[in-house]
Amino acid sequence: MNDYLLSPMFLKRLFVVYLLLQVSVALILRNVTGDPLDVLIFQCSIAPESFKSILEGWGERGLSFYHAHYFPDFFLPIAYALLLRGLIFQLRGKTRLMLLPVIAGISDQVENVIHFTLTLNQELIFTPLFYVGMVAVYLKWFTALLSVGLIGKAYLASLKT
Fold first, then answer.
1. Please, which residues have CB within 8 angstroms of residue 156's CB and are 6 or more apart in sequence?
2. Once rounded to an integer, what is the mean pLDDT over residues 55-79?
3. Contact residues for 161 (Cβ-Cβ < 8 A; gap 6+)
4. Whole-angstrom Cα distance, residue 61 to residue 72?
């Protein structure tokens, strides 16, 4: 089974699934505020006050669309973690670096659960739970971007040989 998850055929199919999930998330989130950057700024908030302020600015309609994005967004981290892990394997062979996208995907899931909880129970925004979510967000972005950078570097190196 593990060999299949690392095969080029599976990765091609997974890429299509990833794109469909990403487009679904984007189409839903564009209804939150009209500006997709607002959602990114919200998710990357480092202060509970700004997190709550942005959330309040969305109103009930925006919040309902934000909640709706979680259905595809709970599958998205699984798709990109497996995809990036497989690409690292294809380009670099079996290496501990294959854990980076897994860490990104797990961090994304932690972020999703915490942010969903915080948006449903806004009294929790001013508790340590907010900061756990913030760490998960930045760990997700760091490990995901590091994974993409490693893939890009390995791909460019493969072109030279």
1. none
2. 95
3. none
4. 19
